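REVIEWER CHECKLIST
Item 1: Sequence provided? yes
Item 2: Single chain? yes
Item 3: Sequence as submitted:
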Amino acid sequence: MLPGIVYLNNMREIHFSKNLKIAELLHEYEYVREFGEGVDRMYYEMEQAGLPDPEYRTEAFMV
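Item 4: Structure as written out by the authors:
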């Protein structure tokens, strides 16, 4: 499931970390460039590879 404030129609605008401590650690050790970049980065990398945008759908309790 997507976290509380994140929905399919706003996931590129809303940034949310389920575990802020892990997110801070990954940022501190430069495993991530900035908070909330994951979805936008995925769109960018797929575009650069000539792939279509990802498609999301909900089924029962999964995205």
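Item 5: Key structural point noted by reviewer: The helical segments are 20-28, 38-48.
Item 6: Recommendation: ____
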